[in-house]
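Data availability excerpt. The first of two example chains:
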Amino acid sequence: MENIKRIVMNEMGELNFLGKLAISLLLLLIIVLVKNEIKKLIKKGFDTKIANSMIDTGRTKTLVTLMQSVVSVVMYLIWIFITLDIFKIDAKGLVATAGIGGIAIGFAAKSFLEDLISGMFLLMEDTFNAGDYVKLADKEGIVQKVGLRTTIIKDFNGDLHTIPNSQIKIVTNKSKNEQRALVEVPISYESDIRKAKVVLADGLSKRFAHDDAIVRGPDLIVPISLSDSGVIIRVIAYTIPGEQWRVETAMREEVKNLLDANQIEIPYNKLDVNIKK
């Protein structure tokens, strides 16, 4: 015990540098443990509300991330100020005498604050939430995390993009409203267009009558244009967010099956070879 005292205390019985450093590191460990427990309690509380279907899941994940970020920032700030007090460092005097170093820190802090303020506005305005399909800063994908400083989205290649909130100027949220599923298919000029309209309208109506993802449609527009090879037919349906791609695939398959079953030709490139004798 006496050996430990000699290491961490000076002749006057006060903590020396090593002693203060040890106290500071011990305090940091306690801060980290407390922070993690508070974050777990926050997540557990919101998970209970999700299980009881009391609040929106996407919004909840965003709020959990926000509150956990705030807890982390506050706890680390507490540690910094207590550590400064342990080392008898005047925080105000440190800022006042920082000089050029303070200017450099100021520029770094400026970027940090811009990200922080932008993040707060994004969260307050409910622009997007975790799980939304969005386009931000020329990146497109599913929102994985909305933090105070950055937003993380995952594209369809599996790549994660971390975007500083201050760079998010325009947001395109494709999960807020109905989404369009669109299929265009040509039929040959030799085919009966009236028959094609009846076949597709009846067949698509029966096929998707009980698809809960479809809000409106499928509706048939015939013709939308005349191409070099045939008449272009368009099928449109409006779906709940995130289901438009599945519905498009299903409509494309059903259109092909209906046309094939009724001998209505879908034109394709052909090569006629005439042999002269």
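And the second chain:
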Amino acid sequence: MKNKKNNELAVCGFATVKKLEKNHPEKIRRLYFTEEVAPKFGGLCKKLAQNHGIYNQKPAAELEKLSGTVHHQGVVAMIDMPQITQLDSDITDGWIERGEDAVLLDRIGNANNFGAIVRSAAFFGIKNVIIPLDEAQSSITTSSYRVAEGGMEYVNIYCVQSSVRLLEAMKGKMVRVGTDLKATKTVADMKEIRNAGSPARPARKPVLVVLGNEEHGISEAVRSNCDQLVIIPWGGMASGQKESLVDSLNVAQASSIIFYEMMR
């Protein structure tokens, strides 16, 4: 939940606030907690006191008002509203030089899905997540921060005006891989896809993987600017079953499988 007057974001959830305490306690302006969890945040209260920060015990109902959710787990930290960095060529050149992969979200609208993708990216060591400046794309919110379970502290979030222009700019520099239900290659082919060149001397390029909208997948313009399209094979494929019982996995679930294959 945003506090527009103070330009703040409520960060809630026990594990999420603990990760924030561990990595960036200086971000916390104010801390509120219930009596039940108070003993778990004594160290953070001391740090806040040293820096003239504010902390206070509140009933659960007050925390619900502060965070806008019943899922606060007894603690809410107010931080400055995160500023998302505009992606530029200096940043992408650094990725290419260091061989860092990245994830581009093509209008992922659900905040919980966004947070879960960030959590998976952090787990698999993928540092860079890009979102378009599009009303259909979820951004950093209280919900996405909580679902990320501390992942926001380990992943860099960037924004772009146009996903298509980014993909065009990365042609030949990163392997652009889209996810598509009509793809002929599977995620198991990721190693082959990223290892361009001869088998003897593969020129391993970083991957820019694109995850599509929950309902419509990646857009046609994005699809046409991918080097390869991949699909997660469903259980009946090997036995010749003509169709799956459901159309697809949730995009957050799919991201975990894709990231695992990217890292293998």
